[in-house]
Specification:
16 strands, 15 helices, four-stranded mixed beta sheet, eight-stranded mixed beta sheet
Amino acid sequence: MRDLLIHPASLSRLLNGWREPEGEPAYRLLSEALKLMILDGRLSLHARLPGERRLAETLGVSRITVSTALDRLRADGFIISRTGSGSFTALPASPASRPVRRLDGPMQMDDAPGVIDMASAAIAADEQVHAAYARAVEALPAHLPGHGYEPMGLEVLRRAVADRHTAEGAPTTPDQIVISGGALSGLALLLRAVTRPGDRVIIEHPAYPHTLDALTQAGLQPSPVAMTPHGWDMDGMLAAIARIQPRLIFLTGAHHNPTGHVLSAADEVAIAAAAARAGALLVLDDALRELWFDRPPPPPVDHGPHVVRLGSTSKPYWGGLRVGWIRAHADVVDAVVRRRPSLDLGVPVLEQLAAAVLLAGPPGPLDARRQALARREAHLRAQLAERLPEWRTRRPEGGLSLWVELPRPDGVRLAIAAPDHGVRIAPGTRFGVNGAFDRFIRLPFSREEAELDLAVDRLAAAWSGLDRSTPRRRTDPDPTDRAVL
């Protein structure tokens, strides 16, 4: 197999903003930036880095700076050099310093024993999920005589999804539903069908990391619109739509990941109207819609053929149930189905049957799950207030995580230090463009209370252990670093 080579220009784009905080040695900043990119999966493992001379020329630094940074990474186990072959990304062999899952993403290999994963926001399966799979196995024989390929998805599941939308206030037929391997897979199918490289896409800022990744890998140009402490900046959003005339607008209106905000019905109507005027497709990610605390978010509305909704079973039921859907009008559905074979050939039948059982089932288990999440959210927020009172949080309206503001822009440094104390977190920069949100971290409350207590203890130890004598970033950070708690 040929080595995966990281192109210098691509690496330079990923390293945007690596020279801060001012006053620190460049070699240290470069090594720490590369380390975090390896930890959160932005740099693939076992990939070959550019040569020292070429990398130095691309970054505009001396070769000594690059060489010293790589020496630090080599000593820490984040790169391995092979004589005559170059330097390759790696993970440390020491269990104490090996946070090896991608931040808020799929597993690469096992975490070190005892490390609490506070980077992934996901719910464990319960007896309801087990029962759904048991019923799916019972229903499977009826589908075995067929070929198993369903480009739109099984009729029984599409009807269950359509009935759910109709019951909530948006009349929907099964022909408006395409089943995907999760909401993110649905987005990838949609982007393949309706966009071209170079198209402009308006997104909220901060944004879900894998959405940013999907847009970038599709060759699109994200145009972030900063959120406020109270939610979406509607003046800024409507002005950006009118000015940019984007091909697509992507929003997570209920409940926003990572802030937990909910887009009001009036604001959704205003954005849908602005999208229609601009000739843009509005995509609303509803994967977290079901996870509300006190009251449900505004019901989904059919704003017209230029609005698409994404849904998923992974957030409200189980992360391992990779079943999602696209709810769209005929032209978009046809485009997705035509282009789908270039990306995948459908979703496994057994998983679709299990998802249909869950969606058509009684509401009681999901209500209990909401109540449990609300208790855990309150518990985590109380623990943070007691152990780390200088950290600022607000109660979200739902979802799976808290968006936590630190007293200084040290989210990246904390994310690097935390695994040595037995906990792994996602820094705010993972949810931003060009290094924004280093003053924030995201903490999920999907774990049991005892684990949350232990995680907070370990975070407090990691925070107190940061080297406070190191020069900090500017004391007046970029507004996007402060305005979205």
